[in-house]
Design brief:
Order of helices and strands: HEHEEEEEEEEE
Largest sheet: 8 strands, antiparallel, barrel
Strand content: over 45%
Helix content: 10-25%
Number of helices: 2
Shape: elongated
Radius of gyration: 18 Å
Structural class: mainly beta
Strand order of the largest sheet: 1-2-3-4-5-6-7-10
Length: 179
């Protein structure tokens, strides 16, 4: 976690060095949902014309209402590359995007006797709305869907079998800063 925090602090100093024109910018974002589940989220991005390219690292514990009965502590570390398209210039208002994710997960049964690990490749798509509210800061409510495209479809945990979901919906709010 300390390494991730350091990387994002350094990004604040290096992003202004990126050439900014009317059609290009760069920024960073954090997302509320992972922090609410005891994890973290960080995104660094570069945008040119209507396209934004994001690299994301996150850790999240799946909310218990989304975990199959008999299991708990479904923790996922995700590494993501996404391309977004903004319908308006200036990297604000409505956008849609898609990308690939690598999920490194771990799960326990409710008995918590052991922890099993699994890996999945995810195709993701979503959209949202960027609202610039103060100088270079913005809010970004969004929603998306994650589809398991590869990796393990079943994981043995204690005397049970966990099946990572094929489809995982997600909604949240990000706060960001851009140059």
């Amino acid at each position: 976690m300390k390494k991730i925090f350091t990387i994002f602090l350094l990004s604040l100093f290096y992003l202004p060095g990126i050439s900014q024109t009317k059609t290009s910018t760069a920024g960073i974002e954090i997302d509320a949902l992972p922090y609410l589940t005891g994890g973290y989220y960080g995104s660094i991005w570069y945008g040119h014309q209507h396209m934004r390219y994001r690299a994301i690292i996150t850790a999240v514990t799946t909310p218990s209402f989304m975990v199959k009965d008999g299991f708990t502590e479904n923790k996922i570390n995700a590494y993501t590359l996404i391309t977004d398209y903004f319908f308006k210039p200036g990297f604000e208002k409505w956008w849609i995007g898609a990308g690939l994710e690598y999920w490194k997960g771990q799960i326990q049964t409710e008995a918590r006797q052991s922890t099993s690990k699994y890996d999945n490749v995810i195709v993701t798509a979503g959209g949202g709305y960027v609202w610039k509210f103060y100088h270079h800061f913005y809010l970004n409510p969004w929603g998306g869907i994650h589809v398991r495209a590869g990796g393990e479809s079943s994981v043995r945990v204690d005397d049970k079998t966990f099946n990572p979901p094929v489809i995982t919906p997600e909604v949240s709010v990000k706060i960001g800063w851009h140059i």
